[in-house]
Model the fold of this input.
Amino acid sequence: MIQIDNLGFSYAEGLFRFVLPRLSIGRGEVCCITGPSGYGKTTLLSLIAGILVPADGVIQVDGLNLPELSEKERRQFRLEKIGFVFQDLELLDYLNVYENIGVGRFLDNSRVWNREAIQNYDQHIRELAARTGIERHLNRHPAQLSRGEKQRVALCRSLVNSPVLILADEATGSLDPENREKTRDLLYGYCRETGATLVEASHDRSGLENFDRIFDLPAIAEILPLEEQP
Amino acid sequence: MRNLLFLAVRYLRFHRFRTVILLLTLTSLLYLPLAVILITDISQQSLTLRAESTPVIIGSRGSDLDLVMNALYFQPSQLRTVPYSLLDELNHEERGRPVPFFLGDTARGYPVAGTSPAYFSERNLRVAEGYMITGLGECVLGSRVAESLGLKPGDRIITDPENPYHLAGSYPLELKVTGILEASAGWDDRAIFTDIRTAWIARGLGHGHDELAGEQGTVLKEEKGNLVGNASVRMYNRIDPENRNDFHFHGSTADFPLSGILFFPDSSRSEAMILSAYGEHSLLQAVEPDKVILKLLDTLFRIREILNWVLGVTLTITTGAVVFILVLTVRLRKAESLTLYRMGGSRSLIVRLTAVETFILGIISFLISLLLLGVTWLFRLNILDLLIQ
Done:
């Protein structure tokens, strides 16, 4: 599913270079990338999602070599294949829960949204909401929800396009143990059912026993000062 | 575009306070300059039209603007009156049609203008309901007076008391409404018309009362052949067929006052003769209203120029504020922009979204401005009244 070789990346204004010689994750695997804060977990997820483009190396996701794709193609790739759960949830305050879950529809101009497609999408949103227990809150705005409920909305939003790859950036870090378990169970459940791949970045090492594979970033990647490039 | 519209509408609805502030600002940006243009244009057109339709006004010497404002727009004047005999003199000269007018009283806030039937024919005023004045104590109402006071032919209207504590002063007079004039979209819609003698009676220059002679105890004294009644004599405050003949004037009506005379000359030569005759007069003046109004409009245009400058500065500052708010909005929504981009949205989505929001606000502001301009147009005469006052 994900194949990374000789990846090198540095931010335009940055002083360091992130180097990852090799990483391979198979389809349907549930993986966790751990490491201390500032070691490049979010950067790696952004590279896998095609948000950032590496200076050199190969990132293949679902058979597509991301650095070779145009900006537009990478956006379409994210819309169709990736489900992103952000660290700060990042729900839009002016949309209600229903609209927040389905916000991807308003970003996808390439797809034809006929009556049937809209009905299916609507049904899918309601199924996901029911499954995560937020169906009563569909007309509410994020400000009216608890942290756990917002987390479930963010989760539904990441799953609504039926992604083949879910990227979760510290998605459960700010949750209490009970909500963290529930959220992870939902993510694992979805991946087991659909065969989707999950890559979660977390600095928290608790509850890692449920992951298929755990990558300790300091062990597989390097952060080098820009002057000391290999 | 539909997606952008949806998101934009949701954003505007959620941030209501910001939306209302922006709407008010954009509406003022659009409405204010247009309203200034509309009001000044209406003022110019309306003032000029009425002034041009009255070739000459003859009145007491003094401010020509005061005379024109009094004669054409029923505004109170500080000028002295002219004697009624002047009307006879002008009739005698046979150089055109003199139309007397006397303004002094008001009824429920509207001016009561005493004039002759010639006024209505010169102004092309016709009765829409009822009939024209036929005698003492009757009046016809301008269309707006009738509408705002809810009066119809057959109703009565009482003149406003000048000073309720002045017991020896003129009493309010009850006027019978005989007709309502057709709307003329001008100042005649906002006046009450009577004949000259009724206007004089309303002013207290004529009166009607119980018979004195023969009634015991009502005569206070006799002076030079005139009987002076005591306080028990009942004064009539209403003129009807039964007491109409009891109304009378003391002294010669030739000396009775007129606010002025509208003069419609039969030729340009006559006009020149009249203007020349009264141009040198020590007590009277003859003015051409269109020239007086042109002078006034010159002042109005200078005011408009100053107003344009003030508006220009205000609008520049307001536009700057709106642009600042929009730029700030885009910056404040940077995190949202990044979220949508990471989900697959375009990098310029928030900028485009803000543009669509501004477009929606612009359209709504434009519609509100149009509505306000319509209201301004409807109330143009009230606005003009305020301006003139």
